[in-house]
From TrEMBL, chain A:
PANTHER family: INTEGRAL MEMBRANE PROTEIN-RELATED, MEMBRANE PROTEIN. It comes from Streptomyces pacificus. Pfam families: DUF485. Keywords: Membrane, Transmembrane, Transmembrane helix. This is DUF485 domain-containing protein.
UniProtKB/TrEMBL annotation, chain B:
Keywords: Cell membrane, Membrane, Symport, Transmembrane, Transmembrane helix, Transport. GO terms for cellular component: plasma membrane. The chain crosses the membrane at residues 23-42, 63-86, 92-110, 137-165, 171-190, 202-220, 260-282, 294-319, 351-381, 402-421, 427-449, 461-481, 501-519. The keyword RNA-binding does not apply. It comes from Streptomyces pacificus. InterPro entries: Na/Glc_symporter_sf (IPR038377), Na/solute_symporter (IPR001734), Sodium:Solute_Symporter (IPR050277). One of its GO terms (molecular function) is acetate transmembrane transporter activity. CDD domains: SLC5sbd_u4 (cd11480). The lineage of its organism: Bacteria, Bacillati, Actinomycetota, Actinomycetes, Kitasatosporales. This is Cation acetate symporter. Belongs to the sodium:solute symporter (SSF) (TC 2.A.21) family.
Amino acid sequence: MTTDAPPPAGSRDHAPAPLTTERFAEIHRSAEFAELRRAHRSFTFPLTAAFVLWYLLYVLLSNYAGGFMGTRLYGNVNVALALGLAQFATTFLIAWCYARHAAGKLDPRADAIKSRTEAGA
Amino acid sequence: MSTALQAAGLAAAGDAGAHRPLIITLFAAFVVATLFITVWAGRQTKDAADFYAGGRQFTGFQNGLAISGDYMSAASFLGIAGAIALFGYDGFLYSIGFLVAWLVALLLVAEPLRNSGRFTMGDVLAYRMRQRPVRTAAGTSTIVVSIFYLLAQMAGAGVLVSLLLGITSDAGKIAIVGLVGVLMVLYVTVGGMKGTTWVQMVKAVLLIAGTLLITFLVLWKFGFDVSALLGAAAEQSGKGAAFLEPGLKYGATGTSKLDFLSLGIALVLGTAGLPHILIRFYTVPTAKAARKSVIWAIGIIGAFYLMTIALGFGAAALVGPEEITASNKAGNTAAPLLALHIGGADTAGGAILLAVISAVAFATILAVVAGLTLASSSSFAHDIYANVIRKGQATEKEEVRAARWATVLIGVVSIALGAMARDLNVAGLVALAFAVAASANLPTILYSLFWRRFTTSGALWSIYGGLAASVVLVLFSPVVSGKPTSMFPSADFAWFPLENPGLVSIPLGFLLGWAGSLLSKDKPDPGKYAELEVKSLTGIGAH
């Protein structure tokens, strides 16, 4: 297979010596990797589904619920604009939640697996 | 579209001649400054990691700024401001889609890509697969997406610059497209990723500063009362309350509503499949830094799109739709016209603001075309030349040399196409690039990273199928023929009713990837998948 050949000496872009397929398979089977994977997927997959649905709901409301979207809330600010701003707010909120989750739940697990592997490979 | 009319529109708005020397001075200052940066960056570009990935030395914040500079194109700045100014609320929906899309990149793509790839999108797509066919496919779709996007920017540059500088002859417009092409080739061949990144950072700062200034002035004019701004915009538009509600542009018929849904889906799923965005994640040292850069980008891009409310509704209220459409039918000059009016038409203040905002728009275009050129030449050199033609035997020096030559070639091709495409519908080309990225690239990226049973056949079906479906559907859509606004208004071979193919081509891309994996004789390689999964989540062995 013609994957990237190891870069020549002198290049600053060299990765540590590649692990064997068996070693990767071993890590893949380990309980701590399973936990890392679960922590990643159980957070990002439902959240992705949620924000895509929330965005689609907003697009569909704009399309098919014009009357509701035109309801005035405050001065000239109507439901459509408020929901649009809510999309901005949820995007910022989700980004912040993910950053917290990743720093608290993903990074420590990933770092532990990585440092152990690279130390005792 | 008559350029004489456009020039007349701008002339009516203020003194057309007086601001030109200032605009040219600011354009020239930006060009000189960025060329200086490029030469400086070029001196530090030694190996392939420098050329493709800027030496992976940028911080999360720097890359977040550069991502913003790479992403906020002329279509965003000029196009969205114009769309809001003319269609009110329906224009604002672009802003929302372009921002929400970043969550796909943040949650699913940025970090795994940084951990498991090296220089291009193809590195990740081909990781578990047979290298040559999948890299060829990845290179093809990278180049197609980038060229569509590039054409839109070039056409935009032609319209904008010729309008502001009063160049109305065809030869003059072609010369402008040629100048943009030469500059982008210089940025990329000399400065590589390092130079391109710095140009994008400078542009992002200029764009945010210019937008903040105009936003502040617009809000100040309305006593910082957003409701009053909206009210004035609705009144000036002549459409009343309907201007602030959905439906002015897309609400007319059942078909146009479907078109809106199609556009919405393409916008939200396209971003995470745009090659020139994806390669930016390789410019930072770790996946954590890649995450930080996306968080910064979401903050910067979000703030910018929020300000498009003030730009667009401000232009509707203070410039008015007649003057905007007289200047450019698509509304692309709404933001510069707003700058002229808010500074005071026929005053030095107005001329200065117009010149500043025009220079910002020019900087925007140059930074984006440099990113696109780099993405396509990287993919040509790394995926197609090094891994397919030379079967992985090329040295780094040969690969980088191939990338530089590819840049020159792409520059020549896009100058030629851009000169022909100078009157094409800019927004249509950008939306098409997003639809192709979401149909051909995103399914394969997600399946590769997260689906154990994905195979080489699945990847090929999905990339080529998504690519073909989106291009063919656009070819037979009202974008190309059958309507007065089409590329060929006198011909009519349109049988696909929607302007954006995403509603059909994106599900098709996902379906083909799934079907191709299950129906073909190809067997997935479980060892390679375990390797990719471990690498992508832990960063073990990352470059």
